[in-house]
């Protein structure tokens, strides 16, 4: 085991992917999540064409004054886990010319992602080094379940990565929410072993932020100096504060993150405007 320790642990590739950020004092990242792309280009979620909204979100991102050093995509990238959906995404991300990383959500299939989400701009690496920072992409998806759980190999990967780079500030990414988000129906389908993640976070002061998708709404809370952050979907939104499933009226969006060399995180959600979207709010399910 020890011989290949740094390369492969529990089948998780551990060769860090290194990116030289454009500036020394700040790493610029963007997060796009819950794209729910279908194999069928006309595929709609609650009446909304998810490819159209995804492309509108990406076009807004490309117009940013500062080009991100990397793009983090945090699960539910496809609605039907189809090769066609992942191939479309891989081609689209490649055309954006931003190094892109991914992790799986409850709608995804990791094996299919491995096969199709890979090209000169799209990487399966789960440990990314960017100057003073490292970003870790964890898989919280559980086959056949909507809720999430970090399996033992994911926790080990996380601890090992933190031990290996104790001097780098760390941003942890996953799909499922590890804290309650004040939506009763969503709180029942979050990360069921959030305590295990919290324990690791508490033991490693270099962890400065945890970001996720899944809840299709903006969320940001600072707990003991760590930022806990969720980002809107690039398609349909969920209504904050809802007891049962409820689609939200806000526009699709993404998050732009600045990670400073002193460990501070500043981030902002940008939503698209001037685009007509028809969401069927009468559909009561997801
Ligand atoms: Fe989702």
What would you note in describing this structure?
- This protein has 286 residues and is α/β, with parallel strands linked by helices.
- The chain has a single domain, classed as 4-Layer Sandwich (Purple Acid Phosphatase, chain A, domain 2).
- The strands form 5 sheets. A 7-stranded mixed β-sheet has the order 3-10-11-12-13-15-14, covered by helices on one side. Strands 9-8-7-4-18-19 form a 6-stranded mixed β-sheet. A two-stranded antiparallel ribbon has the order 1-2.
- Strand 16 and strand 17 form a beta hairpin.
- Helix 2 packs across helix 3.
- The longest helix has 14 residues.
- The radius of gyration is 18 Å and the shape is globular.
- The N and C termini lie far apart (43 Å).
- 43% of the residues are buried.
- The N terminus is likely disordered.
- The site of fe (ii) ion has 6 residues, from loops.
* CATH architectural label: 4-Layer Sandwich
Helix percentage: 10-25%
Biggest sheet descriptor = 7 strands, mixed
The chain-level mean pLDDT equals: 93
- What structural class do the secondary elements suggest? alpha/beta
User: Overall 3D geometry?
Assistant: globular
Q: DSSP helix count?
A: 6
Q: Distance N terminus to C terminus?
A: 43 Å
**What is the highest CATH level, the class?**
Alpha Beta
Going across the biggest sheet, name each strand in turn: 3-10-11-12-13-15-14
What is the radius of gyration computed over CA atoms, rounded to a whole number of angstroms? Answer: 18 Å
- What ligand molecules are bound, each kind once? fe (ii) ion
Which residue ranges are poorly predicted, with pLDDT under 50 across at least 5 consecutive positions? 1-7
Question: CATH homologous superfamily, by name?
Answer: Metallo-dependent phosphatases
The oligomerization state is: single chain
Number of strands: 19
How many domain regions? 1
What's the CATH topology name?
Answer: Purple Acid Phosphatase, chain A, domain 2
Order of helices and strands: EEEEEEHEHEHEEEHEHHEEEEEEE
Beta-strand residue fraction: 25-35%
